Amino acid sequence: MVAAPYQTFYTPRAGRVAGTKRLPPSSLSEPQYDDLTSRAYDASGNVDWGGNEVITTAPDGSQFTSRYARSRSYYGADERLRYYQEQVLVSSGTSVQNLGVWEEYRYDPLGRRVLVRSNRDDLCDQPDQCVSHITRYVWSGDQVLWELRAEGGNGASLESESSMGAQHGRVSYFHAGGIDRPLVIMKNDTSIIPHQNWRGQFAFGTYANGQVSDCNGWRSPCSNVPWPGFRTTAWHVEANAPDIRNWYGGLVDGMRDASGQMYMRNRYYDPATGQFTQTDPIGLAGGLNSYGFAAGDPVTYSDPYGLKPTCDEKAEAAQGRLCAIVVT
Known about the structure:
mainly beta, globular, 2% helix, disordered C terminus, 17-stranded antiparallel sheet
C-alpha cells in the first residue's frame, strides 16, 4: 500500500505551516477521504488556533464529515503554553461522539513543566476515553524522575497527589544516559525494562528476569502497557490523545498530551504538521527554519528549512502568495 501524498501550505517568509491537505489517492482501492489540517499564529509566532476536518466517502458514494476539530491555545507572558482547549466531534455516519478536552499547564522557575490538568468532564461523552486527570512531575535536573497521576475532575480529587488503578498511580524512572530514554519504568510494585524499535519508539517491555511483560491472553503475570511502537507512525496516524486506559507514564508515548502535541521542554511538537508550535528560543542558532523539527522531513528530506516551496498561482492569488510543497 502506497500512502497518499499530502500537500503542505506555508505562510510567506516565515516558514510556518499554515495547513496540510491529503491529496486524492492514485488507486481506488485506497481509503477515499479528504483530510485538511489548518493552523493560525499569534503576533509572537505561537500557534493559537488549530482545525482539522476529515470528509469520508461512504461505500454508496455519499460523503460525511467523520472528524471535526477546533482548538485554541493560550500562552502566558513568558510565552509558555498555559491552557489548551479542543472540541472534537467524531462521526461514523450514523452516530456522533464528543471527544473534546481542556488542559492546564504549570511550570517551575526553571521552565520545567510540573503539572498538567486534563479535564474532560464537560467536553467528552465516551466513558472509556473521557478520563480526567491531574499529573504532577518531579524532576532530577533535565530528567523526569517521578510522575504522580490522580483523578482530575471537578471535585475534591484535585487535592490528591495520586490515585491507584490502571489510569492513575505513581510512575518512577531509572535513567542512565539519554534524555527521556529510561532504562527501567516502575509503577507501584512492578518494574519493566522498555525496548525501542528502529524508529526509537518504545515497542515492548520485559521484566528483570527477561520475561516479556506484554499481555497476550495467556501470559501471567503481565502488564498491559500501551506501547506506541507497534501502533503508530511518526505522524501518530491521527492527532488523537494517547491511550491512557493503562497508564505507565508520559515517557512511554513521548510525553504526548491529550491535545496530541508532544512536550519537549522548551516547546511543544505538533505531529499533525511536523513542526514545533513556537519559534526556537535560541533564534537562528537553531537553524534558518525556527519551527523546524528533525531537519524537516526526515524520510525524504523535502525542504528541511521551509524556504524552497513551489507556489501555486491560484493559491497565490487567493491567499496572498501562499506556497505549497507535496510530500509523499
